[in-house]
TrEMBL record:
<dbReference type="GO" id="GO:0009279">
    <property type="term" value="C:cell outer membrane"/>
</dbReference>
<dbReference type="InterPro" id="IPR010583">
    <property type="entry name" value="MipA"/>
</dbReference>
<comment type="similarity">
    <text>Belongs to the MipA/OmpV family.</text>
</comment>
<protein>
    <submittedName>
        <fullName>MipA/OmpV family protein</fullName>
    </submittedName>
</protein>
<feature type="signal peptide">
    <location>
        <begin position="1"/>
        <end position="21"/>
    </location>
</feature>
<dbReference type="Pfam" id="PF06629">
    <property type="entry name" value="MipA"/>
</dbReference>
<dbReference type="GO" id="GO:0009252">
    <property type="term" value="P:peptidoglycan biosynthetic process"/>
</dbReference>
<keyword id="KW-0472">Membrane</keyword>
<keyword id="KW-0998">Cell outer membrane</keyword>
<keyword id="KW-0732">Signal</keyword>
Length: 246
């Protein structure tokens, strides 16, 4: 199985759709994910769901943050994020892809800044590969706006991810040795900007029990979709589940 950046975005929307100070939520859900790599079918995976919002610390699914500064409209934090993208040739159905090297998931350390207004919220984030799997750097600029109803909160979002050359070449490049083993063309990827749109929903069943869902659609940039490892122009992820608020 492989998981792409859509899961990271969906998980972030899932956790922040209605975050309030002092709130801790725990639950379980499932992810439907379209892999960008050739030789993978769409797959569904069970995932734990967790979020916590404190005065100085938060957990938003795959990201933990230490808040350096916060007021009514702004939040600046140091972040640690588990980046779930990986590639395992043993799990792939394509005979050429089976002859490539493994690409591993990694942890990224960086920072994030949020600015909140009545018209919505802006997020600016940058982080680097702390485990040096790719040695890459990633950034994000996004906008989201929670729409609160009686029991339902809808949070549409739009944004763009930046991935540098090291990150893209590790996950999508094909080295000379891999090309000779697999028959795929040798390929070196450059940096890229990946736009996405998303929608999260949170419905309150009882005082403590919630139904959650988030969906993300991504358009793959040229430096990704031109890789011989990739066989699509876009990608989609859907996360659903139930959480209990303590």
């Amino acid at each position: 199985m492989t998981v792409n950046k859509n899961l990271l975005i969906a998980a972030t929307l899932f956790a922040t759709s209605s975050a309030m100070a002092g709130e801790f939520s725990l639950g379980a859900g499932a992810v439907f994910n379209e892999s960008p790599y050739k030789g993978y079918n769409e797959n569904t995976t069970a995932v734990p769901l967790m979020s916590y919002e404190g005065d100085r610390f938060y957990v938003r699914q795959t990201t933990g943050g230490w808040i350096l500064w916060k007021d009514g409209k702004n939040e600046l934090s140091l972040t640690a994020t588990w980046m779930p993208l990986h590639f395992d040739p043993d799990d792939n159905d394509d005979h050429q892809m089976k002859n490539l090297d493994e690409r591993k998931a990694s942890a990224f350390l960086g920072g994030a800044y949020y600015h909140h207004e009545s018209w919505g919220s802006l997020k600016f984030a940058v982080s680097g590969d702390a485990m040096d799997e790719s040695g890459g750097v990633m950034g994000e600029v996004s906008y989201f706006h929670p729409i609160r109803m009686e029991r339902l909160i809808l949070t549409p979002s739009v944004g763009v991810f930046y991935s540098d050359e090291s990150y893209n070449d590790y996950y999508y490049g094909v080295s000379g040795n891999e090309s000779r083993r697999s028959g795929l063309d040798e390929y070196k990827a450059g940096d890229s900007w990946t736009p996405y749109v998303g929608l999260a929903a949170k419905y309150q069943l009882t005082q403590s029990l919630f139904l959650n869902a988030s969906a993300v659609y991504t358009v793959l940039p040229d430096d990704v979709k031109n890789s011989p490892m990739i066989d699509r122009d876009d990608s989609f992820a859907l996360m659903t589940g139930m959480t209990w608020r303590f």
